[in-house]
Amino acid sequence: MTEMQFKINALLASEPWQHLRPQQKTWVLAVIESSDEPRATRLAYPKASEKSLVVMRYEIRRSPHVRAALAFWNGPPNEIQESLNRLQAENQHLKAVEEQVVEMIAQIIVDLPKVRPAEEATAVYENINGVVVVKIPMSEAVAA
Length: 144
What we know:
With 144 residues, this protein is mainly alpha-helical. Helices cover 73% and strands 7% of the residues. The protein is built from 8 helices and 2 strands; from the N terminus they run H-H-H-H-H-H-H-E-E-H.
């Protein structure tokens, strides 16, 4: 997930976002995307006249709910950045753990012939949707 996607998801789940009317949501997203308030106002109110758009732009900017949503978007970047950093660190940790598990399984596979020298080791592992699966034929599992 990119930082922009993370921020948008956080905004959409935020309390300020829940208080916006549909036109305000359209306006806020358009302003976030392009910083073009007249365009955002036209998108939010497509049937309004040019004169009405000027008034609506002024009114929508004054809305406490719109201000709260924009403050959330622009607001404490430390909280958003800290969350993003935490998620990235957790992801790196999970990758490191996965590598360790794969190495351990590879070592187990290498050691199998030492445990049963008369048999050939046929255990294999697969990474299925992020889960490492060890497959040992049933005849070997019973013999062990």
